[in-house]
Structure formats: C-alpha cells, structure tokens
Specification:
Protein name: M28 family peptidase
CATH topology: Aminopeptidase
Distance between the termini: 33 Å
CATH class: Alpha Beta
Shape: globular
Number of domains: 1
Strand content: 15-25%
CATH architecture: 3-Layer(aba) Sandwich
Number of helices: 7
GO molecular function, one term: zinc ion binding
Organism: Chitinophaga solisilvae
InterPro entries: Peptidase_M28, QC/QCL
CATH superfamily: Zn peptidases
Largest sheet: 6 strands, mixed
Radius of gyration: 19 Å
Number of strands: 10
Keywords: Acyltransferase, Transferase
Length: 330
C-alpha cells in the first residue's frame, strides 16, 4: 500500500490558542544557531486558488498519468514547459526504474529552482503520476482513475506557487521537485512505491544538494480535507512542521490544519527524502481521525468533483507565507 497507515493511539487535543502577529520580534537564535534580529513581515502574494484548480484540472485532462502511456509524456511536457517560463533553472531527470514484477517503468522527475545562488533552501515536492488501477474501489478494482486529488492537486498547488515565485522573488532559495512513479507499487512491498523519489534521493539534480527542510504535498485538494501531524514527519522534521501548522492556524485555516495527535505513520515520499537524502521533510496529506484516508482514495471517485479551491488555498497561501516571511524561523 503506497501510504501504509498505522494507527498507534488517539491522544488528547494539544493545541493552544494561536495569536495573531504582524511582526517577528524573537531575538533568540534560529534553527541554525545564528542570532536573529527583528524582521518586519514582507507583503505576501495572494495564492490564486482558481489558478491552482485549473492546473489540477489540466493534468486530469491528459488522462491517467501512468508510466508507459502517452499521458505521461504529454503531462510531463506541459509541466516542464510552464516551469521553464517561471523558474530560474529547470532540471529534467529521465530514467528507468524497476517496478513490481520487475516491470521496467520510464520515470520523469522535474525540478524547478528559484534563487539558485541562495545557500539556505526549502524543498517543495509532490508526485504527478497516477495509480494505474482503482484497487480501493468497491466494485471494479482494475479500472483506471483520474487521480485529481492523489497526485494532481499537489502539483496544481506547487505550479501556482511557482508562478507567484516568478513574479515576487523571496530571499530564500526554493526548489520544487515533482516526482514520477510514486503510485505504481503493491501492498506487499512498501518500497515498491515512491520510486521516482528514491531515484532522486540517490541521484539529486545538483550534486551534494541539501535543503534546510522539505514539505511534501499529497492529497491536498479534497473538499473538507483535514491535515494532521504525521508520525515520521514529527520524528524527522517537527520544528518546521509545527511552524507551518502555526502559520496556517494564524492565517485562519484551523479547520484544515489540526493539532490532534492520532499517532499515525504514513509511508509516503517524505520517508525516502528523510532517510536517503537526509533532508528533514514533513508530509501534508489528508486523512481522517478514524485513521482512514478520504473515501475517494485509490477509487474512481478521485476526480475533479472532490477538488475544492478552498482547500487548495489553505495549503498554497500558507506555503507562500512561510516562504516569504518565516522560511527558517522554527
């Protein structure tokens, strides 16, 4: 199972009240140990949810983005073409990975770099491929699915982020990594998932690449989605994750970003970024308090009807606020 969900326990609500702030005045040390100075927040561009929705819809229009299909090549070309208009540098990794039953799968990872000279960097990533079959469907488990939420929504958000980064350059270095062949795996072998990320972690687009931390987006567009702090994310990247949740709540997105601790560990791309690339990375992924993923997960119901611009906005606007004002203050 691509995202193996393990429920350990349900704990009490740990959230405290979040205070509004328009100025950072903490003069202690930052995450690197360097002294901080007062920093007035800079204007943050408005995340255009309609634009992110359109980018999500466009990906779905190509059909299921499955390795070895025309949709894979067409969608990759469209994503790459857009990112080349916006980013300072775009890298395209083409390789072949070994899938289940030793299937040879073409893999296309796409990386867009902003402010490449900046030493302190943030990695944003999502997968853009589609699971080849709706194996969680109640009836026909061999049918294909659109993958509107599971894949396209995260890419749609990051493409709108990229468009904004082009117009309003932040001081931080930002890298957007869109990985392929994430969802081709089988439940019997968790490591058969996230193959594009595993390849990138061992073969980064820049030799010796490092980022202060990473943010993974997966299923970030569903109506009524809720995002909880996932177990592996807390283990490796609690500081930046907690900062992100705090910013989201301060911006008014407390219905989406929850502080309840349900003790869940999810096998997703961030696991390999953490363990193979050694970049602390947290996962923003929708799941329910009962431990299940949204009902449309890996079913034919994962189509544009489940996508809500409000959810895209909550995730995208928080990313922009963190990128422009508090990328390393955690």
């Amino acid at each position: 199972m691509r995202k193996a969900l393990i429920i350990l326990t349900s704990l009490a609500l740990v959230a405290g009240a979040c205070q509004q702030s328009t100025k950072t005045t903490d003069n202690s040390t930052d995450s690197t140990g360097a002294g901080k100075v007062d920093k007035v927040e800079v204007p943050v561009p408005a995340f255009n949810a309609d634009s992110a929705y359109a980018y999500t819809e466009k990906q779905v229009s190509f059909g299921p983005r499955i390795p070895n299909t025309p949709a894979q090549e067409k969608c990759a070309a469209w994503i790459t073409g857009n990112l080349r208009r916006w980013a300072d540098t775009v890298y395209v990794q083409r390789t072949t990975v070994n899938g289940p039953k030793n299937a040879k799968l073409p893999c296309i990872n796409i990386i867009a770099s902003f402010n490449p000279a900046a030493k302190q960097r943030v990695l944003l990533l999502a997968h853009w491929d589609t699971r080849p079959w709706a194996d969680e469907d109640a009836f026909d488990k061999n049918k294909k699915l659109d993958g509107a939420d599971d894949g396209a929504s995260g890419v749609g958000v990051l493409m709108e982020v990229a468009r904004q980064l082009r117009s309003h350059k932040p001081e931080a270095g930002i890298d957007i990594l869109l990985v392929d062949v994430e969802d081709y795996g089988v439940k019997e072998n968790e490591n058969s998932f996230c193959l594009g990320t595993q390849y990138w972690a061992q073969n980064p687009h820049v030799k010796g690449y490092k980022a202060a931390y990473g943010i993974l987006l997966d299923m970030v567009g569903g109506r009524g989605a809720q995002f909880y702090m996932e177990g592996t994310s807390k283990q490796y990247a609690y500081g930046p994750m907690k900062k992100f949740w705090d910013v989201a709540n301060r911006l008014g997105y407390s219905d989406f970003f929850r502080y309840e601790n349900y003790g869940s560990f999810i096998t997703d791309d961030h696991v390999y970024v953490n363990t193979m690339a050694n970049i602390p990375t947290f996962d923003i992924i929708a799941w329910q308090a009962n431990g299940n993923f949204p009902p449309h997960w890996h079913t034919q119901n994962d189509n544009m009807s489940v996508i809500d611009p409000k959810t895209l906005k909550a995730v995208g606007q928080t990313i922009l606020h963190v990128a422009y004002n508090e990328p390393f203050n955690y």
